């Protein structure tokens, strides 16, 4: 329904969408030229004023967004009908890719009840909290979408989504548990589509909570883990064993250059012996909405037990999971972090900068954080933000990834593959690495 100014390609790079081009006027000023002959679903033309109002609405709804993209609430203005200017608070060469995020899909300025955008589908009917039905936008500039109607149903429980697919009440089920994928493949009336995403599954290790404040113990935990076994046995061989905290699909990831720890249980035991660990039980936090995380946590706990480390799994509801994590309540937290835009800089800042969203609460409260390794990593992230080309960015962010791995600030697990279950007669699912960027325009069903 909604399109941002900048597109994210399947290679996680920027491309024109509602803006045909953009340029940095100076270090903190960007100007975007709008595409001609674009109309909203109600027939009104796309204008610079409409873009400004759309950003204003995002800023009003989410107060933290201006700080994330480095633009103050009054930093978006219309130069003329077809040119939009953004003033960033600091030099930020990756700004165009940052606003390719789905939050910045342009909305019509009228605040009516029906969502109105410029995309290939428009709203036909909304049942609050249950479903939304879309139909093709007949005047879409790139032609009319193939499906004559799309209905998205909100089914919270992942296993219920699979059951709905098996019963035939839905044609496609997103984000299904990997443990259920094999059964779908083996069923003649169903199939799956998988593709690597910009998300990494990992264990965030609390650097400031005893006993994981001991680097020797953190390294021991890393040496105990077998990423290949997790992918093969827990995730049904869907995914890629991780070397670091950043998915290999992200252009500045240095996955192939990072050292791997193991698995080597003997070395892990030696490191436990050399550490200050004295039999304390490590708390392991998992999110109840992630269907595979309990099995992963149980597998990890088994390996930790083999090296003489005890652990306790705590399953937390989604509503309070992030608060419990950022409050530093656990020694180990299973998390999945990825990017929904072409510029993934905010990801590394959120994870590892002292004032990033994951660490800010504890850092402001007592000068610590969760898994931010220290001021030198902060400096490297800030230099990476200002880097003007991918090679320089990769140098700075690559060093961050090395330090994170070297200090045991995370236990890398896997690079996530998204799994779509589908009825066998359905085809045309766009294999975009970001689920929210899938257009659905080419979906068809065999007759």
CATH topology group of the largest domain: Dipeptide-binding Protein, domain 3
Low-confidence stretches: none
Q: What's the overall average pLDDT, rounded?
A: 94
* Global geometry: globular
Short characterization:
By secondary structure, this protein is of the alpha+beta class. The chain folds into two domains: 6-104, Dipeptide-binding Protein, Domain 1 (Dipeptide-binding Protein, domain 1), CATH 3.90.76; 198-415, Dipeptide-binding Protein, domain 3, CATH 3.10.105.
Can you put this structure into words, describing what you see?
GO terms for molecular function: peptide transmembrane transporter activity. This is ABC-type dipeptide transport system, periplasmic component. InterPro entries: Peptide/Ni-bd, SBP_5, SBP_5_dom. This protein is an alpha+beta fold. Helices cover 30% and strands 25% of the residues. The protein contains 14 helices and 18 strands. The strands form 5 sheets. Strands 10, 11, 12, 13, 14, 15 and 16 form a 7-stranded mixed sheet that branches. Strands 3-4-6-5 form a 4-stranded antiparallel sheet. It has a 3-stranded antiparallel sheet with strand order 7-8-9, with no helix packed on it. The two termini are 27 Å apart. The model has no long low-confidence stretch (mean pLDDT 94).
Write the layout of secondary structure elements.
Layout lengths: L5 E3 L5 E3 L2 E8 L2 E6 L13 H14 L3 H5 L1 E10 L2 E6 L6 H4 L22 E7 L3 E6 L13 E4 L4 H10 L4 E2 L7 H6 L3 E16 L9 H10 L2 H8 L5 E2 L23 H10 L6 E7 L5 H14 L3 E7 L1 H9 L5 E6 L7 H8 L7 H7 L8 H12 L3 H17 L3 E14 L2 E2 L16 E2 L2
Parallel strand pairs: 13-14, 13-15
Antiparallel strand pairs: 1-2, 3-4, 4-6, 5-6, 7-8, 8-9, 10-16, 11-15, 11-16, 12-16, 17-18
């Amino acid at each position: 329904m909604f399109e941002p100014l900048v597109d994210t390609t399947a290679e996680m790079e920027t491309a024109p969408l509602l803006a045909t081009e953009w340029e940095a006027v100076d270090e903190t000023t960007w100007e975007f030229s709008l595409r001609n002959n674009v109309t909203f679903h109600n027939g009104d033309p796309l204008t610079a004023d409409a873009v400004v109002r759309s950003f204003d609405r995002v800023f009003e709804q989410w107060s933290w967004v201006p700080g994330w993209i480095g633009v103050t609430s009054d930093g978006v203005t219309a130069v003329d009908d077809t040119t939009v200017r953004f003033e960033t608070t600091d030099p930020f060469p990756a700004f165009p890719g940052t606003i390719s995020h789905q939050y910045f899909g342009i909305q019509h300025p009228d605040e009516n009840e029906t969502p109105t955008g410029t995309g290939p589908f428009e709203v036909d009917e909304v049942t609050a909290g249950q479903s939304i039905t879309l139909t093709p936008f007949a005047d879409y500039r790139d032609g009319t979408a193939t499906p004559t109607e799309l209905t998205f149903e909100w089914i919270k429980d992942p296993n219920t989504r699979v059951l709905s697919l098996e019963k035939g009440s839905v044609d496609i089920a997103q984000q299904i548990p990997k443990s259920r994928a094999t059964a779908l493949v083996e069923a003649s009336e169903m199939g799956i589509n998988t593709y690597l995403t910009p998300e990494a599954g990992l264990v965030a290790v609390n650097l400031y909570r005893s006993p994981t404040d001991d680097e020797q113990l953190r390294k021991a935990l890393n040496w105990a883990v077998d990423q290949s076994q997790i992918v093969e046995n827990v995730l049904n061989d869907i995914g890629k064993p991780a070397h670091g905290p950043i998915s290999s699909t992200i252009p500045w990831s240095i996955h192939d250059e990072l050292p791997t720890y193991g698995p080597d249980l003997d070395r892990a035991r030696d490191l436990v012996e050399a550490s200050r660990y004295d039999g304390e039980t490590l708390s392991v936090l998992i999110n109840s909405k992630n269907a595979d995380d309990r099995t992963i946590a149980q597998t990890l706990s088994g390996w930790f037990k083999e090296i003489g480390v005890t652990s306790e799994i705590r399953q937390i509801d989604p509503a309070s999971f992030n608060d419990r994590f950022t409050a530093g309540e656990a020694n180990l937290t299973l998390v999945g972090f990825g990017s929904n835009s072409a510029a993934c800089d905010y990801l590394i800042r959120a994870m590892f900068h002292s004032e990033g969203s994951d660490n800010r609460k504890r850092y402001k409260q007592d000068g610590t954080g969760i898994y931010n390794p220290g001021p030198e990593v902060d400096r490297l992230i800030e230099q990476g933000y200002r880097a003007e080309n991918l090679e320089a960015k990769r140098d700075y962010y690559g060093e961050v990834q090395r330090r994170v791995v070297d200090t045991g600030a995370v236990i890398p697990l896997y690079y996530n593959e998204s799994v779509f279950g589908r009825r066998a007669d359905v085809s045309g699912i766009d294999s975009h690495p970001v689920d929210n960027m899938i257009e659905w325009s080419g979906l068809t069903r065999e007759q």
